[in-house]
Design brief:
This protein is mostly helical and about 270 residues long. The protein is built from 12 helices and no strands. It is rod-shaped, with a radius of gyration of 42 Å.
């Protein structure tokens, strides 16, 4: 038998890790790789996975610069003004300042242009739907108030409504009127102004002491006193002017009647 014939027919391959540095040679991750070809395959597969993962967000220890690069890579515009928001069609009261604020907030949050526009449009849709619901609810309240007043006043509805409009036009602050309607309902507001308008009517003022002598007030002072009394009544639901059953109600109404005459005497 020759030396060649003594060699085994299928000798085991030499450990390919023998040529690696000591720290790599003993690494557990290489223990399952039988040869260099397997190592190459693992490397190629790892590169494919990294490509699919895409942009990797910064870690907790990364600074602002890393986050700036990350947001830019995602598609955030360079400046807040570069966001292009579509102006809402047919929407009244859209504030251009809101768009400016939204651009600043979106840029600070790192939103890409597409996501920022989608969020802006979604918010506008929400505002529109809420506004439509509010307008519908307001219209329903007005219909209920009209039905209630027509039922209570009967044939006197148009006359009393005219008196209420006259009084509201002469004395009511629009903000106070809106606040009163929200707190007490439109019917209560119209009733109050109808009583004020009745007090202002010439036929009810006939026979009341002439001029301002009864109060010692001029027309301007009388108007100021009327505004003070009405303001107190608007802010206090238990005010005698708001409660027809209050023992001071009739006296206060009579006082206002005389004040109205003084206020319009000039």
């Amino acid at each position: 038998m020759t030396d060649f014939d003594a060699q085994p027919s299928s000798a085991a391959p030499a450990d390919w890790r023998g040529s690696l540095p000591e720290d790599l040679r003993q690494h557990p991750a290489l223990g399952q790789l039988p040869d260099v070809a397997a190592l190459a395959r693992e490397h190629v597969n790892a590169q494919g996975l990294i490509g699919r993962k895409g942009i990797i967000p910064p870690g907790e220890k990364d600074g602002p610069e890393a986050w700036e690069r990350f947001h830019t890579a995602l598609g955030r515009p360079a400046r807040p003004d570069d966001y292009a928001f579509a102006a809402p069609e047919g929407m009244e009261g859209y504030d251009p300042d809101f768009a400016g604020w939204f651009r600043q907030a979106a840029h600070k949050a790192g939103l890409p242009a597409r996501q920022a526009s989608a969020l802006h449009d979604a918010y506008i849709d929400l505002v529109r739907s809420r506004g439509a619901e509010s307008a519908a609810a307001r219209a329903a309240r007005m219909d209920e108030a009209e039905a209630e007043l027509r039922r209570d006043w009967g044939r006197g509805y148009e006359r009393n409504l005219g008196l209420a409009r006259r009084a509201a036009g002469a004395f009511a602050d629009p903000e106070i009127a809106r606040d009163l309607a929200e707190r007490y309902g439109d019917a209560a507001l119209v009733r109050l102004f109808a009583r004020v308008g009745e007090a202002m009517s010439e036929d009810r003022l006939a026979g009341v002491g002439g001029g301002g002598g009864g109060f010692g007030l001029d027309a301007g002072s009388a108007r100021a006193e009327i505004a003070r009394v009405q303001g107190d009544a608007f802010r206090n639901p238990a005010h005698p002017l708001m409660d027809a059953t209050h023992p001071e109600h009739d006296g206060l109404v009579e006082r206002l009647r005389q004040l109205y005459r003084v206020a319009h005497s000039g």
